[in-house]
Amino acid sequence: MTRHFSALPGARRALYATISAKSARRLGFDLGCYQPNYAFNKTVPDARLFEAARTAKLMGMCIELEMGGAEDWNVERMKKYYAAGAMTGYMKDAAHMYYQGSMPGYFFKAYESKEPYLHSVYNDTYRFIKGTFGADEVVFGGENKEDEKNA
Fold this sequence. Notes:
Strand order of the largest sheet: 1-2-3-4
Helix content: 40-55%
Largest sheet: 4 strands, parallel
Order of helices and strands: EHEHEHHEHHH
Structural class: alpha/beta
Oligomer: single chain
Shape: globular
């Protein structure tokens, strides 16, 4: 959490369903970022990403994208963050905040990795930031087909 006491901008990362952008500005932050709380628990359904995207948009916030580890399931979930962003608009229409664990971080580990799937998330991150990640590259679970249509 950063609050500015000078001419520098400040950002606030909100935990899942806690604070609006309006509240963040009232507290002295320039940007409020919504944390979907999706990355670290395999049992959280993919629908959470679409719910979070809708909520963030309604609250005037950006999205925090979290990479919870270097295992395949973490890479898959990161790719789902990117696909949901491409489908709902936050890939191009919102600021991004990234969580990547402690230093040097999972994106650096992905960059250095000789394992193709782990390394692919480094390339995907670049394409997401550039606005060229394709949502059709990722398959979501069946529980959120209606959410995907309404994104």
